Amino acid sequence: MSTTSPWKRATAAESASVLPMMQDFCEQLHIPWIARERAEQVDWMAQHPEAGGVWVAWLPPAEAGEREAVAPMPAQKPALVPAGYFVVTFGFSFEFRGKYGLLDELYVSPAFRKHGLGRGALDEYKAMAPGLGLRRLLIEVAVDSPHLAEYYTRHGFALREYRLHTREVAPGNPPYPPAAK
Fold this sequence. Notes:
By secondary structure, the chain is an alpha+beta fold. Helices cover about 25% and strands about 20% of the residues.
């Protein structure tokens, strides 16, 4: 890969290109997939950059090999395909002394895996933080993914001695994560 970052903040026009990757991500992690809702979320995020954003890696299809077909980028850049994405949402914490970023999702398409694109996403996340006014970077890792926790630790992220508890606000939302058995 070149030294120029392939990661670009997604626009509303590019949401259709990122949705198939998001669906694959959700299916792999058993996260409920509601296509219309996801499309609305991606569009909303593109229109409200103060809340966060979706970043997409655009690469030539040749870098993927012949392993899978991927959706092309909108007409302005037909020579590139989406290779992965990550979502960062912003919050505010007194403990963290201001604005923080949460790496909410990180996905690399199978055809582009094992070539450093995930590491590149982490590097992009760390590099963009000062320009976005972020004081702290957070990454959520499933408790049954110790290999991912170790990977993030090697890249400068520390495990905190706190657990985040969640509660649904709107009734009828599908439960996630699924209730422990």
